[in-house]
Design a protein that fits this description.
7 helices, 68% helix, Serine Threonine Protein Phosphatase 5, Tetratricopeptide repeat, mainly alpha, elongated
């Protein structure tokens, strides 16, 4: 089994470096140790609530744990902080897909890809305007 390197070291109950908690969570998630990773992301978020990356990665871990509603909440929180974050939109789509909310999932995937939806009427007006 791969090791966590410097993140394997005990952090101690009083560690208040959110970046270390985030990096440890990231390493654990990459090793598929999702429950442990979730604890680390929760700690990172508690220390730095505006850490958009921690919210997004927390959502990813929750998707792997099939806890889709919580994953959706985490991705939405990440998007409150960084509304144009493509990864958060992508994983939001994955959470919605897991919940069976396919139409909303595809809308999130489109947002992640930068695809803008325009209505039929809007497209027709644009075409008429170009004559």
């Amino acid at each position: 089994m791969r090791r966590l390197g410097r993140y394997e070291q005990p952090l101690g109950i009083d560690s208040d470096d959110h970046e270390i908690w985030y990096r440890r969570g990231e390493a654990l998630a990459n090793l598929k140790r999702n429950e442990e990773a979730l604890v680390c992301f929760d700690k990172a978020i508690k220390l730095a609530p505006k850490n958009q990356a921690a919210w997004t990665f927390r959502g990813v871990v929750l998707i792997h744990l099939k806890r889709y509603e919580e994953a959706l909440t985490s991705c939405d929180k990440a998007l409150e902080i960084a509304p144009e974050d493509k990864e958060a939109w992508m994983f939001r789509g994955a959470a919605l897909h897991g919940l069976g909310r396919y139409k909303q999932a595809y809308a999130s995937y489109d947002k992640a890809l930068g695809i803008k939806k325009t209505s039929l009427w809007q497209r027709l007006i644009e075409k008429v305007g170009n004559w």
